[in-house]
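pinging the channel bc i need a second pair of eyes. not urgent but kinda urgent?? the chain im working w is below, pasted from the shared doc
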Amino acid sequence: MGKGDSRIPAPSSQNKGAGNTAPILKTEEIYERPDLGASVQPNFNPNQVNKNAKIVPASIYIVQAGDGLYAVEAKTGASFADIAAANDLTMPYILKIGQRLQIPAGTYHRVNSGETGIAIARAYGVKWADIVAMNNLQEPFSLRIGQRLKLPNMAALGNGNSDDLSPEQRANAFNINIDDIVTGGEAASVDYEPSTPKNNVSLATPVAKPASFTGLFTWPLRGELLASFGSKGGGKVNDGINIGAAAGTKIAVAAPGTVVYAGNEIAVFGGLVLVDHGSGYVTAYGHLGQISVNRGDRLSAGDILGNVGSTGYVGAPQLHFEIRKDRVPIDPIGKLPKI
């Protein structure tokens, strides 16, 4: 790419004609969910969550014969992690009969089969990011059936009817971003071993993700570089790059990986695909006009995952492309081949 030249050389005529207009934010317009052509049924439905949150008072628990920390979690209703932290317990969490354990106070939800973190957050009208922080959840962010998740206090939770939520709570419940999907998009399982993926894996089934990745990426398409990575002033930040191309231009996955999300629930991005490549790398492809992959699909570098559209908050056909390492966005230009 020459100095001052923002055009990524196009390999075919289908990529020609992309304008040099910067993305137009349409924040005043009503976003309509497009028909993207693949199985993009509404995900993370709060109605799939059994709202069982209970207030657990601070107390002392006396360890009984046969008790492990998971058993204490089940008996008291407080989370495994909170009990361990309150008592300075470390792996392998050995308990002794008669040991006195401090049980911390809190409001806890018991995770049930098939529930995702995002659905749980939506059910209670809170931000999933807040639950992640409160529970100090770490990679790979897998939920365990029977696990207790600490929530904000019950005063903010309502009685289970969405009509009881304030406008702010409703916004929290249905405002999700890419990081929320990465950390809260997997369904709870009995243990932390995911199943082998197949086409269109159910949201109630964890997706098996690649174990490792070399970190080598290829361009998902060629076109006009409309927006670069980083701060744009006025508090605006682009977590990726935007590449203009003709509507319908095919988009290739930038590296081998597994599709962990294919849908349109983040309004600003419209049609969105997330691919996990292992080793903490995730790529995002936004504003798709059509999605041709399903959650759970295993892709090789260059496989087509959809085509360019103008869905979401843009006024011209383009691809929003991100690379994230350990949940942190990095500049894709530094990871893509120089052309």
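so The CA atoms of residues 231 and 237 lie 4 Å apart. and The first helix runs from residue 69 to 76. — does that match what u expected or am i reading it wrong
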